Amino acid sequence: MILYEYPLNERIRTYLRLQHLFARFNKLCQRTEALDHHYALTTIFEIMEVSSRSELKSEILKDIERHKQQLNAYRGNPSISEQALDLIIEQLDQRFETLNSMVGKMGSALSESEFLNSIRSRTAIPGGTCEFDLPAYHAWQHHTPAARQANLYEWSQHFAPLATSIQLMLKMLRESGSTQKVMATGGQLQQNLPQGRNFQLLRLRIDDSLNLTPEISCNRLLVVIRLMQQQEDGKLITSRDDTPFEMTLCA
């Protein structure tokens, strides 16, 4: 099964992009080749770009507070474990305090590094990080893998509070949804969204053996999903088959 996730607002879109970048960075940083560490560093630059929105920090803090209020409303419910409730609220408090203690824009300290700025300015140019353009960077790539990993880890720590907060927010959001089995009739599903709930994330699981790709459009009232069949030349055409798949709406 292939999992597809579709954000229903701009805030969740940013969260998903950042989670994708953090996961890529962690995987590349664990490797030892200089080329992998080059792409790990360019991933940090992408993280800096996505997280530069001035309102991002306040949005995450508001999200944490909203989750705390929702969880506190369950206190006294005999079907809810007070111990589990206290644990997750403690995690939310820790994320709030750590993120709130950050001063200025996230990653602003990295923007003051002459070494990193010289690399960042050249990555937008095709082949712009050659050794004759950036000899200092060329020398860095010849450091030992452990030394490069130590540098990458140090630079990534400027975003650690952001990474852990987004990870927790998305984990809770995903767990809020209930999965249902649906049918795309003639390759298409159109479904009205239940009113009174603010859905934020759509998740689909489709059998990978079907070679189908979802094309999703939605608003606060309606979800439309078309399943596309990929041809040998890469072209996508609309499937005409009745196809079952799993859909989850997360609020």
Q: What are the SSEs and their pairings?
A:
Elements: E1 2-7, H1 10-30, H2 34-50, H3 56-72, H4 82-100, H5 114-123, H6 135-140, H7 145-156, H8 160-175, E2 178-184, E3 188-192, E4 201-206, E5 212-218, E6 222-230, E7 236-238, E8 243-250
Antiparallel strand pairs: 1-4, 2-8, 3-6, 4-8, 5-6, 6-7
Helix pairs in contact: 1-2, 1-8, 2-7, 3-4, 3-8, 4-8
Q: Can you put this structure into words, describing what you see?
A:
The chain is an alpha+beta fold. The protein folds into two domains: 161 residues, YacF-like, CATH 1.10.3900.10; 73 residues, YacF-like. 47% of the residues lie in helices and 20% in strands. It is built from eight helices and eight strands, in the order βααααααααβββββββ. The protein has a four-stranded antiparallel β-sheet. Strands 3, 5, 6 and 7 form a four-stranded antiparallel β-sheet that branches. Helix 2 runs parallel beside helix 7. The longest helix has 21 residues. It is globular.
| Percent in helix | 40-55%
Whole-number radius of gyration?
Answer: 22 Å
The residue ranges in which pLDDT falls below 50 over 5 or more consecutive positions are none
Number of strands: 8
What is the CATH T-level topology of the largest domain? YacF-like
How much of the sequence lies in strands comes to: 15-25%
- The strand line-up of the biggest sheet is 1-4-8-2
- Helix vs. strand class: alpha+beta
**What composes the largest sheet?**
4 strands, antiparallel
The CATH C-level class name of the largest domain: Mainly Alpha
Q: Residue-averaged pLDDT, rounded?
A: 93
CATH architecture name of the largest domain: Orthogonal Bundle
Please tally the helical runs, counting DSSP H or I stretches of 4 or more residues: 8
What is the global morphology? globular
CATH superfamily heading of the largest domain: YacF-like
Reading the helices and strands in chain order gives: EHHHHHHHHEEEEEEE
Distance from N terminus to C terminus (CA atoms, Å) equals 23 Å
Question: What is the count of distinct domains?
Answer: 2
